[in-house]
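User: I'm designing a mutation panel for Class I SAM-dependent methyltransferase and want to avoid disrupting the core. Could you give me a predicted structure to guide residue selection? Please restate the sequence first so the numbering is unambiguous.

Assistant: Good idea. Sequence first, for numbering, then the predicted C-alpha cells:
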Amino acid sequence: MAALRPGYLADLAEGTDRFFEPPRTTCPWCGSGRLTTRLRTTDLLQHKPGRFALDRCDACGHVFQNPRLSGAGLEFYYRDFYDGLGEKKLGDTFGGRTGMYRDRAESMLPYDPAPKTWLDVGTGHGHFCATAREVLPGTAFDGLDFTDGVELAAREGRVEHGYRGAFPELAPELAARYDVVSMFHYLEHSTDPDRELRAARQAVRPGGHLIVEVPDPESRCARLLGRWWLPWLQPQHLHFVPVANLRHRLAELGFTVVAEQHAEPHDPVDLLAAVWLALDHAAPREDVPWLSRPPNAPRRAVRTALLVAGIPALVLGTLLDRFAVRPLAHRLGVSNAYRLVARRE
C-alpha cells in the first residue's frame, strides 16, 4: 500500500476530469439522440474517486456509460482490480466457480459436441478453460485478454496459447482458426461492442459457433436494486446490450442464433451483493493506496463492527438468492444475464 500510494495520489492530484471523454449526444448502438439518464453512481467496489452515469437510448434500449472513460480512465480504474493488488482475490473468486464454468462449456454440446479449437476472449486467469477441458477433453483451449492474467493462465497451463492484446487487432492473425469463440462477460467491458463482434466473426470458421454471455439490462432486478445491482459494475462496464439488439446484429454479421438462454447464465448473487455493497459503502474505508493516508484504529474498529452486524442480512440475502429467486429467475424476469449461441453460416 505504501509503495503504491504516491503514484495514485500523483494521478489524483490532476483531478478526475481527464479520465472521461466528452459526453455523447447520440446512442453508440443506433445513433438516436433520444437519451435519458438511467443511473448515477460511484465506484462501489474499489471506491476510487469519481462519479459515473449510465444513459439509456429510448429508441433501441441500449444502456451505456456517458461520459465514457478515456484511455487514461480505463488504465486508472482497471489498475489493481484484476491484477496487482486484486490478482489473488479475484483469482480465488473466479477459481471457485467451477459449476458455472461447466455449465458454460456444456451449452455448446447440443451444437458441437467435440470442437477441436476454442478461443475464450476475455479469459482473465483462464479458469473457465481449465474447467471446460474436463467437459471437452479433446478440445484445445486458447485464451485472449488485454491484462497480464492471460500470461498467468498460459504459465499455469490453463490455456494452450495466451494472446495478450485487443481482440480486434489480433483477429486478422486468428482468422477462421476456431470452431468456437466465447465471450463470457466480456462485451460489456469493450469500448466498441460492434467492433468486437466483427472480430469474432473473423476468428470463427464458417460453420463454427460464437457464444456471448452478458449482463441483462432488462432484468427487473436492475430496476429494483438500482445502483446496488452488481452487474452495473461502474466504472468498468461500458455497454449493456438488450438481447433483441444483439440478436439483430448477429444476424447482420451472418450468424444464426441457435440458442437463447436466460435461466442458465443467471448468477444467484443479486441480493447478497446488494447488501454487501450497501454495507461496504456505509462503513469507513479499508486501507487502499488511493486514500491519502491509512485509516486509523477507531475507523477500522467501526468498519469491523458494522460488517459483523450485517452478517445476518448477508446470510438472508444468500438464502433468498439461492432458494427463492434462482428457481424462478427467468419466470420472474430477474435473470441478471443472458447467453446466445450463434452459428456462423
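For picking mutation sites, this is relevant: The first helix runs from residue 5 to 13. The mean pLDDT is 95.
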